[in-house]
Design brief:
The protein is of the alpha+beta class and 341 residues long. The protein has a domain at 7-46 and 131-142 and 152-171 and 181-337: Alpha-Beta Plaits. 24% of the residues lie in helices and 11% in strands. It contains 12 helices and 10 strands. The strands form 4 sheets. A 4-stranded mixed β-sheet has the order 8-1-10-9. The protein has a two-stranded antiparallel ribbon with strand order 2-3. It has a two-stranded antiparallel sheet with strand order 4-5. The radius of gyration is 21 Å and the shape is globular. The mean pLDDT is 93.
Amino acid sequence: MSENKQMAWVIDLNKCIGCQTCSVACKMLWTREESEKVQWWCSVNTLPGKGTPKDWEQMGGGYDASGNLQEGHIPTDKEFGGGFNFNHKEVFYGGGKGEQYLEPQGDREDRWAMNWDEDEGAGDWPNSYYFYMPRICNHCTKPACADACPSGALTKGSDGLVLRDESVCKGAKKCMAACPYKKIYFNEERNVGQQCIGCFPRIEKGVAPACVRQCPGRAMFVGWLNEKDTPVNRLVKEWEVALPLHPEYGTKPNVYYVPPMAPPPLNEDKSVNPDGTRIPPEYLESLFGPDVHGALEKLKSERQVVKDGGKSELMKTLIAYNWNELLGPFTADPGKIIATD
C-alpha cells in the first residue's frame, strides 16, 4: 500500500444532527439478513453515553504503551443489545384498551440497544449537554484486529481499508477481543466476524461510501488522507482540527472527528457566560486526547474571524457549500454506476 492510499473519514460533530440516516443507509445496504439483525456497522450514539456495545470504552483491546497487543473483552449479545421480542399481540389484539404499551420482553436490566440512551447526555439544567457521534470501523493503520486474527482473514487493502475474507475466517473472535472500538460483530449463522468494509465495492467504481453520500447534515467527509489540498488532508494534517477517537489505544485510526463546540453555559441568573464551557474540557480530552484543546481554540478563533467580517478557509471547508466537496474523489452517481452494472 502506498503512503497516499489510505482512505480516511472526517466527521464534524458540530453538524451531526443524530438523524441516523448514515446508520440506516449502511444497514439497508449491508446487513439485511436475519443473521445480521442486530448488526449496526455504522452507529450514531449520544455522548456522554454508554454507546454500543454497552460500555465499550471499558472493554479493552488495542495496544499498550510499549506497542504490545492487548486482548480485551468480547462483547456479549446482551451488551450489543437489540433483536428483542415485543408484546405486539397483547398491545394490538389483547383488548387492553390502551392500558398496555409496546415494550421489549424480558428482564429490564438486560435490555440494551444501539440507541438505548439517545439524547440523555449529562450536566445539570440549564447547562445540560450532549452531542452525537457516528462510529464505523476505523480502518486503522495498525489494526489490532488483523494482528490478533489467527487465520489471516483480516488484511489491509490497497486503499487502506481493513477487509475480511469470510472464506478464511474461522470464527475465533480474537478480532473482537483485540478491537478497542468494539465495532466487529459476530454472525452466528455463518460463524464469521463482520464489520464495516468502507463500501469498497462502491469506491472501486468511484462512488462514495453510503454513510457519507447519504448524510443530510453534510457532516461527513471522505478522501485520501495524504492527498494535499483536499478537505480531509487539510482538516487532519494542515489545520489539525480533526482528531482520532481514543488515540491512546495505539491503532492509529483513520476516522477523525472535529470536536463539538456547545453553546456557552448560563450563569445562575440565566445570563450567558461567554468565557465558560458547557462540555467539560476534560471529557473531550478523554475522548480525543490533549490535542483537543488546540483544535477547539483553532475552531473558535476561525469562527471569530468570520464573525468579524473576515474570511476563513477552515470555516468554508467545514460548511461545505457544495456537497460534492464532501465526497473526495468518489463523486460518481450511485444510481448510474451501481444499479446499471
